[in-house]
Amino acid sequence: MKKTLLIDARGFSPEGANCDARLAIEAYNVGWKHLIHYNSRGTRFHAAGFGPSTEGLRVDCYDNPGDYLGSGMDGLEVYVHCNAQDQLGQITKKGKLVVYGDVGQTFLYGAKGGEIYVLGNAAGRPMINAVGSLKAIINGTALDFLAESFMAGDPLNGGGFAIVNGVELDENGRVVPFVLPYPGSNLLSLASGGAIYVRDPHRTLVEEQLNGGAFYAFKPEDWKLLLPYLRENERLFDIQIERDLLTVDGVLKTPREVYRKVAPSTDKEIQAELEGMGD
Amino acid sequence: MTRNLYTPSNIQSSRRVSPHSRAEIYEEARTHFRPEPGREWFPSSPEAEGGCGVTGFACSIPVGGRHIYEPSIQMRNRGNGKGGGIAACGLVPEDMGVSRSVLDEDYILQIALLDPNARGEVEKNCIEPFFNVDQGGMIPTVDDYRDIPLLDIQPPDVARYFVKAKPEALERFAEEKGLKNLSDREIEDEFVFQNSFQLNQQYYASLGEKRAFVLSHARNLLIIKIVGYAEAAVQYYRMPDMRAHVWIAHQRYPTRGRVWHPGGAHPFIGMNEALVHNGDFANYHSVSEYLAQHNLFPQFLTDTEVSVLLFDLFNRTYGYPTEYIIEALAPTTELDFDRLPADKRRIYRHIQASHIHASPDGPWFFIIARSLDPAKGFQLVGITDTAMLRPQVFALQEGEVSIGLICSEKQAIDATLASLAKEDSRFTPVADQYWNARGGSYTNGGAFLFHITPKNGDGTNGQYEMRVTNKFGESVTTAPGQTHCDLSSAPTVSAKNEEDKAKIERAIKENDPVGLYTYFRDLIVEMDYDRLRWFVDELVDQTAKKKPSFGIEALTLCMDRRYPTGDKKRSSIYSILRNGLETLFERQHLCHETGNNGDSTHRRITWDTRDRLRGPEGNEKNSSH
Q1: What's the pLDDT at B621?
Q2: How far does the CA of residue A275 sit from the closest CA of chain B (Å)?
Q3: Contacts of B569 in chain A (CB under 8 A)
Q4: Is A186 on the interface with B (CB under 8 A)?
Q5: Contacts of A5 in chain B (CB under 8 A)
Q6: What is the side-by-side strand order in the sheet with B221-226?
Q7: If you average pLDDT over residues B72-100, what whole number do you get?
Q8: Which of A1, A43, A79, A144 is the best mutation test for B, with the most CBs of B within 10 A?
Q9: Residue B366 is inside which H or E element, if any?
Q10: Is B276 helix (H, G, I), strand (E, B) or coil?
Q11: Taking all residues of chain B, what is their mean pLDDT, rounded to a whole number?
């Protein structure tokens, strides 16, 4: 059970010793387990710097939290009630990050774990160099270079993945799919592990977008893996699984008909080629 | 959508010179810029810059310079005080002390006098022989630069002249340089451009001791820059009340090279455009070589200067429409190229073949203010590199007045809007729309343009409107038929609604914030702004002391979720909810206060009370939030 400290960011510096993100760390150290930042004007490193094993801490951010929010978090939960800026969740290890808006450049750079939900879009290079067991749900899309150099093992065996739903909420709150769920020319390029699940019922993704990746059959175990995260996504954003995600042009489809799985290529010829490189 | 095709009819020359001939004419006219054989022309130590802050906005009404220093202050941590500057475009005749016709027809020549004694010499050698001066003098400054916070180095005196080229000088120039096939305006532009180049050569670039340089020389556009932060430039040169339709600013963070002179600060002038830049080219050398092939030579040792020279080259020398200029700077590549329509692919292939070696390589993001012909108005342009390596956010607010904004950070956009909303209730502190550009893409081309155009065709009545397009000319608009709320006036008492009140009471009693949100969502279309504001005030009143966690959760749900809003702008609804939330926050006790505080699940701390932080105490109840 938490008591809440409201931190009015007016007058604090956007970074350094006099910033409200630093005060939040002091507050946590004296016992506060729920922190709300408001009147933020670009404060950097919100929800960062609390140290290891911060389960039980919740941080809510309003107005204009700045770059690097949630970087290095290890167990805490962060809720961002607006659009966020750049470099969110860098090297995140564990915890939960929810953004009720868009996120900026290099989202989740080098992240190792955590459960991440974004209502809107990610800008360029989300999840670049991410590893481990990261789970990210992006309801919008990304500009390009999603999950470049992703190294997240096998998602069906504890590894990491991202879901890209490729939808937006229009001015009437309706879920509307983008023409292309992922418009970028590079998806999962140069990756060696992990997977991207793309809501792509019209099969718009093409091989040319996968530099070193490949399409894999979407199996029941994939859906079993995604379902709990999509349920939480539904609870957080009211993007409903059946009504909004599995229904295509008014017809309810099976998950296999709607989602596509992209993972690094395991082409035997490529393997053989790599193995022969030292000869 | 209108796809501009590359045909002679839209080349911006009134005398229909082919692009090839245009390029030859301009290059020939600039041969005297080329250094003497054997003399080094390439600057060996270009400066590099890191994560600078850039910002700009374009507005359908002219607004004061104070609104550009809010976002500049907000991004001070993206600069290091080693260079800041602003450009203003679409000025107001009364503010400049000239007539509308002088503002429209004269060039505003702004010269930084690093050596105040250089003024007479500069006027004698570079102005009096060539220009008729309609107005001239030193621009006013504050008495003591030390009165401006964080301004450590006194900015230079700046002389401003409203000038037209002397007809005989212009005629001689056109004859000597072989420019007679160009339009009168094009000849005069080139005359001014070359005069500034030579002034800089004489008083800045070629001297160890730097005495004077041209800050800007465009029509209806001016630049100020200093060694310091951008906002200090506005303050020092007394520009908070000076109005303009388009403002851009730059906080500089040089990472290497010489930086101790204002000439290296942004914005840089092309001919009729000012450019600020966040990034660092990897191919500065090859871009400079490309410019040299066209007899253009940088004088200020930064990649930003070559950026604006490139823009001007594509604009004036090649006569490209803006779409092709953007393509030359940020080429469409990979699958995006394949997805272009066939006619675009054909044209873009030619553009890339001609200019790819001049395309800036590496991270960059440009914001450009452009002064066009009086009938065409002004433009604010944001262009990202193909790989999208620098931060960029675009935003739009449409209504009785419209404003488009571009910044490195979203928070600086909101700071601008808050500054404007404080002064003028037609602005709202939150934009209607925020988005990113996808660099070098077939979807939006990685660039957006905010066009400020006269309502009556020539701008003589001072009425302008704004529209937004992407690189391809496709419009960006907000939902039609919606209006903003005037937040400056209080809601009417008649907005009180017993049904709303009862619902709030019941939801609190049943601890059902989701139920209250659902009620709100289902009613918001039919609610008018007054009823909405009363609803929010009532919710705050009923929960602030007794159950703040409920109030916070209900208001937050209303802010986080998306729903139909009828004839109301979501940005206004969001602002009303957010103001309610802040009121609720402000009613919580400060952290150090003691005593019976009712439901003390929440405490508040501020900058002034930060030293009185303590842990939660036993009498403070647990929160369910």
Answers
A1: 47
A2: 29
A3: none
A4: yes
A5: 591, 602-605, 616
A6: B221-226, B84-91, B243-251, B53-64, B403-407, B393-397, B433-435
A7: 84
A8: A144
A9: strand B364-371
A10: strand
A11: 89
Structure tokens at B435: 């988005």
- Total Cβ atoms within 10 A of residue A29: 12
* A253 Cβ under 8 Å from any chain B Cβ: no
Q: Please check whether residue B304 is in contact with residue B276, taking contact to mean a CB–CB distance below 8 angstroms.
A: yes
Q: How far is A199 from chain B (nearest CA, A)?
A: 19
Question: Position B553: which residue type?
Answer: E
Q: Is A38 on the interface with B (CB under 8 A)?
A: yes
- Residues whose CB is less than 8 angstroms from the CB of residue B565 and which lie 6 or more positions away in sequence, other chains included: A171, B482, B524, B525, B573
Residue B208 has pLDDT above 80, yes or no: no
Cβ contact A71:A90 at 8 Å = yes
* ipTM of this complex: 0.95
Chain A positions touching B76 (Cβ under 8 A) are 14
Q: Is B206 in the A-facing interface, judged by CB distances under 8 Å?
A: no
* Chain B nearest C-alpha distance from A219 (Å): 29
Of A85, A172, A186, the CB nearest to B409: A85
Tell whether B480 is within 8 A of chain A (Cβ).
no
Retrieve residue B285's tokens.
């050398």
Q: How many CB atoms lie within 10 A of CB A10?
A: 12
From the list B390, B560, B614, the residue facing A81 with the nearest CB is B560
Contact B585 A4 (CB under 8 A): no
Q: Which of A63-77, B58-72, B157-171, B566-580 has the lowest mean pLDDT?
A: B58-72
**Cα–Cα distance between B209 and B595 in angstroms, integer?**
68
Helix axes B548-560, B570-586, angle to 10 degrees: 160
Nearest CA in chain B to A26: B613
CB B417 within 8 A of CB B434: no
State the Cα angle at B268 between B264 and B274, rounded to 5°. 160
Q: Which of A34, A67, A81 sits opposite B625 (nearest CB)?
A: A34
CA distance B296 to B245: 31
CB contacts under 8 A, B 501-560 vs A, are: 548-549, 552, 556, 559-560
CA dihedral B473, B429, B74, B219 (to 10 degrees): 40
How many other CB atoms are found less than 10 A from the CB of residue B612? 12
Determine contact: B610 vs chain A, CB below 8 A. Answer: yes
Residues of chain A contacting residue B597, judged by C-beta atoms under 8 Å apart: none
Sign, Cα dihedral of B283, B288, B294, B299: positive
Q: Which residues 6+ apart lie within 8 Å of B406 measured at CB? A: B54, B55, B56, B57, B367, B380, B382, B392, B393, B394, B395, B448, B450
- Look at B565 and A41 and tell me if their CB atoms are within 8 Å: no
Ranges of residues in chain A with a pLDDT under 50 are 1, 278-279
Distance between CA atoms of A38 and B578, rounded to whole angstroms?
10
Please answer whether residues B173 and B187 qualify as being in contact, where contact means their C-beta atoms are separated by less than 8 angstroms: yes
d(C-alpha B343, C-alpha B328), whole Å: 16
- Cα dihedral A235, A238, A239, A241 sign: positive
- Alpha carbons B337 and B331: distance in angstroms, whole number: 9
B221 half-sphere exposure, CB direction, 13 A CA radius: 31
Query: Nearest CA of chain A to the CA of B489: how many Å?
Result: 22
Pairing of strands A115-118, B157-165: unpaired
Eight-class DSSP state of B135? E
Q: Which helix (H) or strand (E) holds B520?
A: helix B513-523
What residues in A contact B517, CB-CB < 8 Å?
A: none
B596 to chain A, closest Cα gap in Å: 16
The predicted pLDDT at position B265 comes to 84
